[in-house]
Amino acid sequence: MNNVRGFKCFDCGREHRLGDVEYVCSACGGNLDVLYDYERVNAQLTKKSLADDRNLTMWRYRALLPIDESSTVPPLTVGWTPIYDFPHLARQFNVNQLLIKDDGRNPTASFKDRPSALAVVKARETGAEIITTASSGNAGSALAGICASVGMRSVIFVPATAPPAKRAQLQIYGARVVLVEGSYDEAFDLCIAAARKFGWYQRSTGVNPFTREGKKTAALEVAEQLNWQAPDKVIVSVGDGNIISGLWKGFRDLQALRFLDRLPQLMGVQSATASAIVDAANGDGRVREAEAHTIADSINVGRPRDATAAIRAIRDSGGRGVTVSDDEIVQAIPELARTTGVFAEPAAAAAFAGFKSLCASGMIKSDERVLLMLTGSGLKDVDAAVRALKEPLRVRPDIDELTTLFEAD
Asked: What's the rounded Cα separation, in Å, for the pair 210 and 312?
């Protein structure tokens, strides 16, 4: 691996050499952080080299990713998703600037294309023929789509309650889909057992350390797209915790490379009925597992698999966790769409609901630049969006009847 020098366990702190571990810490079973030789990275990656690079994908940061120099990356255009500036919303909520990064613009319409693309590269480096993951929908869709682009087989474990659109997307891409009559956490455990039994490459969040490396590319893009000036706050929804820990990893990498002078605060948003990480981050740091029930299926997690790193990201950044109700999440979908033109799925819209809550509580200052990380397209779960809508007008093909309705409106 190009610039990787080893791994370090988030839980016990033990370091491991390359080749000594596959997924998790051999001493305690904790999640692993990928360690880099930043001097070598600095020799290959500079602000000028990036400015000259016309490869506008996540692979522009290849020197800061754990892949072999000879490895072929998938052909789909993953990453370099747009950042939008909405001054009218900034004025409405009394903040200096409100930015939205729309990762629903990735090939399979979610943030999860980033880690899945990297996981496929790593799986092919090992010679694996089949890769698997547990998913509430987006991670599986992303993996299935990336696998389809390179002719690789995938097996995806999802709760039977996953939205039909996400289940259909998995099958359209040709994945072998296993619907688990249970929660996401139960689907996760079955996926782990199946990978061990059948020898499949494991992509699942919180087990494979490289998923965090794929997710950190969003932070690298944010910094570069904002001309190396980090936002004051980055707000993102939290499920397993891997996205927020990945964002923190990306910003810290850039600080280590001396690309950034300061780091943003990370604000994690969860549903009040699936809030293990937020409760721990705002409380005593201890994760208390509980059954999760939220309309935001992408963050419907009762046993978060990357909790230690996520809590550390929130606390070390000086950030905070915030919970919102499912009603607030549902209402945020049309409000966000009608004020920005961005249609977000429930988990992504939760970031906007969290932003509103933070503004109301005074935790966002009027001079701050805030970025919302939106992680998935609303087309992933149209049924959830419909809950916030009124029945449309219904008329006969008669202009007089239409006139009467419009005049009465």
From this structure: 18
What dihedral angle (degrees, nearest 10) is formed by the CA atoms of 318, 323, 329, 333? -10
Number of domains in the chain: 1
Q: Convert the pLDDT of each residue in 236-273 to its tens digit.
A: 999 999 999 999 999 999 999 999 999 999 999 999 99
CA triple 189-193-196, angle to 5 deg: 140
Go through 26-59 and write b for each residue having 16 or more CB atoms within 10 A of its CB, e for each that does not: eeeebbbbbbbebeebeeebeeeeeeeeeeebbb
Looking at per-residue pLDDT, the higher value among 91 and 69 belongs to 91
Calculate ∠ Cα 101-102-108, nearest 5°.
Answer: 145
Gap between the Cα atoms of 201 and 254, Å rounded: 30
Rg, C-alpha atoms of the chain: 21
Residue ranges making up the domain that contains 358: 83-107+211-386
Q: What is the CATH number of the domain that holds 326?
A: 3.40.50.1100
Scanning the structure block, which residue is given the tokens 């004025």?
91
Instruction: Return the structure tokens found at 188.
Output: 């996760």
